[in-house]
Target: T-protein
Amino acid sequence: MLDPQQHLQQLREAIDNTDSELVQILLKRRQLAAEVGVVKRQLGQPLYVPEREASMLVAKRKQAEQAGLSPDLIEDVLRRIIRESYQQQQAADVHLNDKTVVIVGGNGALGQLFVRLFSSAGAKVLILDKDDWQHAEHFCEQADLVLISVPIAHTLTVIEALPSLPPGCILADLTSVKRQPLNAMLAKHSGPVVGLHPMFGPKQVTLAKQLVVACHGRDEDQYQWLLASIERWGAHIKALTAAAHDQAMAFVQVLRHLSSFVYGSHLAAEQADLQQLLDLSSPIYRLELMMVGRLFAQDAELYADILLAEPNNIAMLRRYVQRFEMELKRLEQGCKDEFLQEFTRVREYFGEFAERFLSDSQRLLDTAGDSHQIS
Amino acid sequence: MLDPQQHLQQLREAIDNTDSELVQILLKRRQLAAEVGVVKRQLGQPLYVPEREASMLVAKRKQAEQAGLSPDLIEDVLRRIIRESYQQQQAADVHLNDKTVVIVGGNGALGQLFVRLFSSAGAKVLILDKDDWQHAEHFCEQADLVLISVPIAHTLTVIEALPSLPPGCILADLTSVKRQPLNAMLAKHSGPVVGLHPMFGPKQVTLAKQLVVACHGRDEDQYQWLLASIERWGAHIKALTAAAHDQAMAFVQVLRHLSSFVYGSHLAAEQADLQQLLDLSSPIYRLELMMVGRLFAQDAELYADILLAEPNNIAMLRRYVQRFEMELKRLEQGCKDEFLQEFTRVREYFGEFAERFLSDSQRLLDTAGDSHQIS
Model:
């Protein structure tokens, strides 16, 4: 029999060889996926077809199970590989070479992303920034689309300052609030108008699987080509009224940001030892801490503007603080029964979402655990 | 030249073949990892060696890069495969066959996990529950370890109700607060005492990479075998005073839970349309929503007990609410400059953690995006 130490060495070499085979397979698969991208463009097919991806994964899970391998393992590995494939397939897809697009704020982070997208689609892209406003009239008179991508606080001023646009030109914006900019655009321009909110950050490499909210302004038929391009880049479009959008964003954006901001500010004021907290964090607390801390690595102005944009939100935020105080009083008085009753009410409100969120987040926490570096 | 539709079909078949090869490689790697587990046990080596895993990943990243493959891709895929390996290596590792372990509350969720761990290590495990307390004396007089795993609200009562233990027997608990249970255990038993807080849920399959906090009570030498077993199962042990533990937990556990609870309660009271919020959520908001909703799929009693356990926390929570109100007033008055100043202060407090949290969470959000099902 082998000496265990030698045996271990042999096994590790065998694992290394297997991993080299793995690298080769991933390379081959990437090459094939890139070719699929080329053919799909020839056929004018979209990059991302949810049903096809889902049915493919079901088949692979079954295959893995029959081979005695964990279906979750093959699904997670394939999903990760597929993400890489989408990025590969993101090569030039020229379909807008008859369009001229003016991007106001095209040097900003999100502006640059859309400059890249429209350019690679063959459109003539003109960037208008605060330093070269003298070109505004000349640029806009040839535009098929004027896209506003400036900080929230400047959006209304910039829209008002625009020269008049050709009647068929689309006026659109990318602001993360929608009611006020949409009204301003409708007042400015009598042609096609649509408000867009890309629900992703400027660092996004591919639009595949991403969401863009579209708030109808005027002349839907005439801005269809813009929405079609966004879908062609892989994103999903959700149509919504500006009012419904802003109301939902008050919960998912304003309240979450404010809550994270105050939590960070509180930790700082209480002089909590961050390294200690991190050392003591299980994956879930680590994740919660990350979600707070990441805010402070980002653009302070952007957060300030989002929080200040809509004075109507204040009343809702005030009700949140009142509820927080009420719960705190309950805790102080040790009212466990009342806490349990409220817990039950909220559980009923979440319904089947609660279980779904638990299992979805567990999957994600497992991934977070994979890369947990013990400090 | 091929008809594009036929070409697409051929490429998809080629991808299917590649995926079948992938399944075979994953199977082979799993088999090798299982053998490594067997040999490691022969050698008495720990399951998880952080340095070895890290240096292996550095080597694989380099190899991928030389082959023209994304290093992040191979790292993510390997980390996911390695998680599976740890579960494989978790087979019987008999090293406690001379020990008798009494687990009080061994039928509870976390209790069952430790029953399984100690049993598979060869220990004689006796479960003591509220229904069979008549066995308490008989069980405890033969015990090498009495481990308390009951709901927080009952921990102190259960400790007081214990019969007297043999002088060398370890008394330990798994409660997620530590100061009061540790004091109660020290008062009860004059032999070795240690307070433990496993920083993971009862659904954990393997302890590899998990964290257990240990709060010293008495006779460290005599409870070393317990800590050694926990490390042998793959967990990392962090020694901390009970006071420091409870203070840190007030931030990472109590405040986060309360904050998520109030947020859920607020959404319910405001009758926010959950499906709408979910439809509108980018990966990061989806994640934030999941972190809140998952709470309500879990044990209400446990949350109530955690929030109510330590009356000392109320003052800190009250300061949090006051800070929230202060920020809200600033927003109401449109004080953007003050907001930006506070943002800068908190950013300085987070220091390099902010950037680290941003990039770590981005990686996780990318994974969340992989499985985003557009509804």
Remarks:
- The two ends of chain B are 39 Å apart (CA to CA).
- The domain at 2-90 of chain B is CATH 1.20.59.10 (Chorismate Mutase Domain, subunit A).
- DSSP finds 15 helices and seven strands in chain B.
